[in-house]
What does this fold into?
Amino acid sequence: MDRVSELRNNSEAAFESVFVEYRFPLYNFLYRKIESDFVAREVVQLTFIKLWRFRHHLDPGMDIAIQLFRIAKTTLIDELRKVEVRERHYASMPPAPVATDSVMDVVTYNDTKARLLKLLDLLPPKRREVFELSRLHCRSNSEIAEIMAISPKTVENHLTLALRFMRPFFSCLLIIFANLVML
It folds into this structure.
């Protein structure tokens, strides 16, 4: 029995053999395309997740390598589109306060924006996406759940964890700012 048929029949051994055989060729293929170790590794992981998730849709008449590289290519395109949307969104963020504001306001705004972007980079990808849809795109939990194909409770959990993670960084900033104002 060939590996595509074995995968379609839920063979974990077939999946493992495909993984062992193709993880490095996939990584090399993706790395040559984007020259990013992190993105290449992420896309390889997502490719194998999709391979297992959609194993019943594999074409038994087509070689596993062709199907696997096709999944990797479309996954890479999806990830690059997400990055492009994120960058466009950041570009559309409100500008720094106008020149009539004090220098301190401009510095505080720029510092806060930089901290937010750094903290967003530290969040797991799915949690970051939920946070951005909620707080930056003003989407409701039910809209986010529908967009991301997850339950509203999962959206709520992601938001709670994201805010719990970010809050200490911003509370320190508020304490520092309050002390400067009192001087």
Observations:
- The chain has two domains: 3-87, 96-182.
- The longest helix spans residues 152-182.
- The chain has eight helices and no strands.
